[in-house]
Predict the structure of dihydrolipoyl dehydrogenase.
Amino acid sequence: MYSAAMSLSAASSAAVASGAASSRPNAMRPAAGLRFCGLRREAFGLRSVRSSPQAVAARRSVAAAATAGNGAAGSGGFDYDLVIIGAGVGGHGAALHAVEKGLKTAIIEGDAVGGTCVNRGCVPSKALLAVSGRMRELQDEHHMKSLGLQVSAAGYDRQAVADHANNLASKIRSNLTNSMKALGVDILTGIGTIVGKQKVRYGKVGFPDNEITARNIIIATGSIPFVPKGIEIDGKTVFTSDHALKLESVPDWIAIVGSGYIGLEFSDVYTALGSEVTFVEALNQLMPGFDPEIGKLAQRVLINPRKIDYHTGVFASKITPAKDGKPVLIELIDAKTKEHKETLEVDAALIATGRAPFTKGLGLENINVVTQRGFVPVDERMQVMDADGNVVPNLYCIGDANGKLMLAHAASAQGISVVEQISGRENILNHLSIPAACFTHPEISMVGLTEPQAREKADKEGFEISVVKTSFKANTKALAENEGDGLAKMIYRPDTGEILGVHILGLHAADLIHEASNAIALGTRVQDIKFAVHAHPTLSEVLDELFKAAKVNAAGVSHSVNEPVAA
């Protein structure tokens, strides 16, 4: 699970989050009578409905049976209360929460604890981006002089930079492993396969397999880089993000196929280290997954001033690695007509066209489950659905493998939600409250709907939306840093004050977004949050100004900070 969704799949991921792209009409529709991760029910337009006595009794029975397994063996004659296949961020989060709930838990990992995020994604990429950020600042002579600083020519040691990324991944991987061991999670090594109802087989190649039983099973196998047909990967001159994070070279000229989160972050790294970059994007605009207004500003700030050019509306139909003294060859065809447009000759090519679910070999055929484009079908509770559309009892799938929202922290949140359910507390995760971030310089972050998505929803459901914006140029802290390039934007309902989406480009945008995401998660309305107090001078005042700029026509009473709010 990469740090923030995928290149060409970013738009579809956002659509899934809004419910627009789901093949299951009710996949994102909250059902009455459920607990929404502590969210206020009115955020979903639902009345407060109590569960029936029968439903409450059923949940208590499940919880009692599950928590009874906090001993040498799992409950009900099972080896474990919970077995998790995959020890990435999602599996790790679920395992720790399960132990907290008193469940005897095992996690199966066939590669390395931490999964893609820790070993080949979020974590090492942030190490490289930390370097690129400092290099970019040191190389900006005008910026340095404006602060009264004089800096000689900045340089870097490629291997030392690569070691920094690798060492960070190793440290986090060790931390995750130790945290699970300390809490009593059994870490089982091997490839996990579901062989029947509540049965899992695991083992390493060349060794005998082991079979265990579990009251509940969570699939958390993550994803791998998606490589389109016609592209030959050699890992040296044509490679995916898995290879790029090793930073074995810094090519003079690199083509990046895909201009989503992954491609954009690597363009930040490579240009800071001296490379020239060419984007190849299938859609008609760069950064297709972003709010269009933010995307345009990002192009002005992150693309145009740098050694970056781009081709949009084209496919890379064939890419041949460099060999025998010849460069990497990229054949471009028109995305609509499929006619040949031109052939690029570059030193290297990074394939950043998104990620594909890693679900092969899970044994899903043994339980009548058929994947959809490789994704495991699930309902809103992350329960796996079989080929007939029925829930497979006691089987769940979280994270990239289900395709709902391909973010590491989304996987963790889904895992925690599942554990809540199997512990007897029904729980539905609001995916629209999950933030995403792109760690370029400056950063981009977002939560909820883009403006076009919000307008489409408003037209369909018959309500109006409003948009307010504020600039980082009006923020004291940003100006003190000489980092005034930035914009924050909020889409909301003026009739109710409901926040539909917030998008930020600017200094520390990835940190600032959480006030907005938590407001959406808690159902906090604009007319209430505008009374929150923010320290001065801080970047948080960017959002403070954004909330205060909103005009709400709701007839309801807004509460002051000193006025108690009835539960």
The two ends are 38 Å apart (CA to CA).
